[in-house]
Amino acid sequence: MTLLQILLEVVGIAQMGAGIGAGVAAIGAGIGIGQIGRGAVESIARQPEAVGDIRSNMIVAAALIEGVAFFAIVVCLLILFLV
């Protein structure tokens, strides 16, 4: 078995792992943003006078999660298409 054959087998496994990783990143981001939304709604229900602060903190946290998820998906897609 030559080095090229081994490399071609590893590339297939790397591409499969990249596809699974992109899916897991998207699912994780969805769950995280859902948890943030749930917590914000519960907090607003408990303290309606603090709706402005809660909303702004929720948007910042959701944006950070979305940024990390986007970065993970881009890395997975780079592995998928460049390897």
Commentary on this structure:
It is a single chain. The chain has one domain: Up-down Bundle (F1FO ATP Synthase), CATH 1.20.20. Helices cover 92% and strands 0% of the residues. It contains 2 helices and no strands. The chain has 83 residues and is an all-alpha fold.
CA radius of gyration: 20 Å
- List low-pLDDT spans: none
CATH top level is Mainly Alpha
Residues in helices, as a percent range: over 70%
Profile the largest sheet: none
Number of domains: 1
Head-to-tail CA distance between termini: 20 Å
Strand content: under 5%
Q: Number of DSSP strands?
A: 0
- The CATH topology corresponds to F1FO ATP Synthase
Average residue-wise pLDDT: 88
User: What is the CATH superfamily classification?
Assistant: F1F0 ATP synthase subunit C
Global geometry:
rod-shaped
Overall SS class? mainly alpha
Number of helices: 2
Q: What is the CATH architecture descriptor?
A: Up-down Bundle
**Helix/strand order:** HH
Summarize the structure in short.
With 83 residues, this protein is an all-alpha fold.
Fold blueprint:
Elements: H1 3-46, H2 51-82
Helix pairs in contact: 1-2
Keywords:
83 residues, F1FO ATP Synthase, 92% helix
